[in-house]
Amino acid sequence: MKNITKYPVLERFYTWQGEGVHLGRAAYFVRLYGCPQHCPWCDSAGTWHPEYRPAQLPLLTAQDIAQTIADEIPAQAVVVITGGEPILFDLQPLTTALHATGRRIHLETSGIAPLRGEIDWLTLSPKPFGTVPLPCVVEQADEVKIIVATPQDIPDGLATLQGLRDEAVIWLHPEWSKAREHDGAVLNAITEAVKANPRLRAGYQMHKLYRADDLDTHSDRRRIPLGGNRELGF
Fold first, then answer.
1. Whole-angstrom distance, CA of residue 115 vs CA of residue 89
2. Average pLDDT over the chain, rounded to whole?
3. What is the greatest pairwise CA distance in the chain?
4. What residue segments make up the domains of the chain, in order of their start?
C-alpha cells in the first residue's frame, strides 16, 4: 500500500499578503507546524513554543488541503505555504495537488533544508542567529525578508545571502515589537541602510495594521508576546 504524505497544519486562513512584492494580494495561508529556529520574536510561536502548542493538530493530506482551497477560495488568490518551517517537509505532493487546481504557490522559509516541490515564488527569511539558509535555497529565492530586531541584524542577515540572484528583492522588515519604539533605532537603521544601498527596500507588516488575518475564523487569534528569551529557547 502506497504511503500518503500527511501535513501537520496549525492554521489555514484566507486573508491578503501583508509583506513584500505581493503586498495586498489575496492569499490563502497554509501554516505547517514545527520549527527548530525558535525566533524570540516569532508571532507564529504556536508552531514550536511549548506554552502555545495546540491541544489537537490535524494531519491533512495534500488532497484534503487542495480540495478545501478549490471549493472555497477564488482561483486568483495565491496559496502561501508557511510555518513554522515548511521546507522541512516534502512539499512535492502538496504543490502537485495545488497546481492541479490552477493555484499559484508561494513559499515562506528560512531555507534550512533542500526544497522539495515546485514553487512559483520563494520568499527567504534568513535567521543568522540560528541555522543559516542553504546556498541552494538562496539561489532560488525571488525575494528576501530580513527581520530587523536590532541594527546588527541588517549586516548579519545580508551576510547569509551569497549566491542570491541579482534580480531578487531584499526587504528589511522591522520586528513588530520594535517597529514603533520611541527612539526609532530600528526604523532609522533600516532607513540609513536603504539610503546607503538602494538595492535594499524598507518593508512593514501591513496586515497587522489592518488586523486582516483576524477576520478569518480559522486564524489563530492568540496574542503571543513578542521579544522572548533566546537563551531559554523562546
1. 9
2. 90
3. 61
4. 6-216
